[in-house]
Amino acid sequence: MTQTPVDQMTFEQAMKELEAVVGQLERGDVALDQSISLYERGAALKKRCEEELKRAEEKVAAITLDASGQPTGTTPVEGM
What we know:
single chain; 60% helix
């Protein structure tokens, strides 16, 4: 079975697979070499999720409103 490259996954896809990887590792029913591969894949998925969260945080920061209700960042907010 071929795996989607981590850098092409959405946050949701990466989280879903990361949860599956953690589940497999927690059960402990895989061989050592497979455990190592799962761990490495899990680490890459975790990094991807962190990157996506950081991008989302930056977007939220860019559209934060000031005291008058106007956006403080440079990203246009639809409907305003």
